[in-house]
Amino acid sequence: MKRLKPNLAAASLMLGLFTATAPALELPNIFSEHMVLQREIKAPVWGTAAPSATVTVEFAGQKKTTTADASGKWMVRLDSMKANAKPQKMTVSEGANTVAYDDVLVGDNWLCSGQSNMEWDMNGTSNAQAELADVVNYPTIRFFRVADHISKDTPQANAPGKWAALTPDSARSLTAVGYFFGRRINQEVKIPVGIIQSAWGGSAIEPWTTYTGWEKGYLDAMEKWLPEARAALKAGRALPGAPPAPNTQANGGMYNGMIAPLAPYAIKGALWYQGESNGGEGVSYFHKMESLINGWRAVFQSGQFPFYYVQLANFQNPNPNAEGGDGWAKVREAQRKALEIPNTGMAVAIDLADIGNPGDIHPKNKQDVGSRLAQWALVQTYGRKDLVPSGPLFKSAASKGGKLHVSFEHTGKGLIVGEKRGLDPVKEVTDGKLKGFAIAGADKKWAWADAVIDGKTVVLSSSDVPEPVAVRYGFSMNPDAANLYNKEGLPASPFRSDDW
Q: What pLDDT, on the 0 to 100 scale, is given for residue 113?
């Protein structure tokens, strides 16, 4: 017996060491109480456990079982579910280990990313205190916020954060754009909405993009930069043409740290508010958007999910030069061009800068930004036939008898001269003058145009341009004079018909 005691002690010690080091059942933080599971898709649930362990996931009457692989990784996919605002419980078990999540809803999840205007929280928005007090009226909106700024050299399996129900206190840190988008969807579609926030102020588009995305967009398009760009990607350097700003490295650092840990959590679509840090670019930004979107669609395994984004707001002092082209004019044009990417939509924001404060890069009116993004989603994703998705978008220009006739898409019930002030709805100025249009002849000399609405077209002329061939509208850093809207109260996007 005396000889057995040391052996028993050693066996106990070995058992304790095995128990301490054996992998525990664990799921990434994107799974927590208050979460929203995506409806109408086979939503994945995944995590780690002991190698070869049997893992069972139970939810809404479903029971899915799988076996962890040799490294302990496992995944199941739930059967497609309809939206359900009734709180339910999910349990995940492996042997005697069980993880349970209460208050789980089924609805639509939207990933919200970009730089500071997407990160801008509810506490800093217009009419903040009243909006925060009101969030309690929307119990079926939930949110998950990546709780830190994280850049990594390789894709991460997890990121800090947890799902939260809306309270005046919890909502203070929530993306205002995401919330106002989600609020409109929640109320008009009558489904639970999950807002997944992963944004970083001051970031450029490059570090949010996957290498696969670059190969599917930017690299193929920018052939003249191809050898240098591939070398830069492999070394994690800034891409050719990237802005000289922090966080522009092309190694996907922010994707690795703040998007990869969320994938492939099932989502309905994504919202994007970024571009200020790439504001000196032109068509290259379009190709970078294409790369970003293609890459994200691949990793979230949700096909060509909707991708809705914000065209940059007006900023700094107006430019009196009819030619324009200063500041963010060209990157806004690249954003307009990005509508060529399938299943995308663009919210125009050139009329939302704070009145009297053109130097503020963060307009406080995030209500209209979120609502205009939701307008696209309601039409294009949710099938609303009674709405137009946006304000007028340039379609074509034809020269006739010394005048330029400009046609638009999304004219709705007609075109108007409009005025937007703060949170108030757009007001039609019945005796107002249409502004912001410039025209040029073959000599490429620009002049401000006299602009007249003719039904659903705009007719332009100038005594300085007897034979106009090209038009620009709102094509400057701060197009504060631009005042073309449709009768639905949505502003026309800046544009140019030339490629000079």
A: 98
CA distances from 336 to 10, 220, 285, 437 (A): 70, 20, 11, 17
Cβ atoms of 136 and 166 closer than 8 Å: yes
Residue 240, preceding bond cis, omega within 30 degrees?
no
**Residue 320: pLDDT over 60:** yes
SS3 147: coil
pLDDT band at 211 (very low <50, low <70, confident <90, very high): confident
Query: Tens of pLDDT along 383-427?
Result: 999 999 999 999 999 999 999 999 999 999 999 999 999 999 999
- What are 466's two structure tokens? 């007897």
Q: Tell which residue, 418, 421, 433, has the closest CA to residue 490.
A: 418
- Catalogue all structural domains in the chain, each as residue range(s) with its CATH number: 107-381 (3.40.50.1110), 393-496 (no CATH)
Alpha carbons 61 and 146: distance in angstroms, whole number: 30
Kindly compute the dihedral angle of the four CA atoms of residues 275, 343, 162, 82, in this order, to the nearest 10 degrees.
Answer: 160
Give the model confidence (pLDDT) of 27-55 as tens digits. 999 999 999 999 999 999 999 999 999 99
The pTM score is 0.91
Are the CB atoms for 72 and 21 separated by under 8 Å?
A: no
Mean pLDDT of the chain: 91
Count of CA atoms in the C-beta half-sphere (13 A) of 233: 18
pLDDT in tens, 120-135: 999 999 999 999 999 9
Question: DSSP string spanning 433-488?
Answer: PB--EEEE-TT--EEE-EEEEETTEEEEE-TT-SS--EEEES-SS--TT--EEETT
> How many whole angstroms separate alpha carbon 342 and alpha carbon 332?
18
56 Cβ contact list (under 8 Å, min separation 6): 63, 64, 65, 92, 93, 94
Distance CA 306, CA 270 (A): 6
- The number of beta carbons lying within 10 Å of the beta carbon of residue 257 is 23
Asked if 471 and 437 count as a contact pair (C-beta separation under 8 A), the reply is: yes
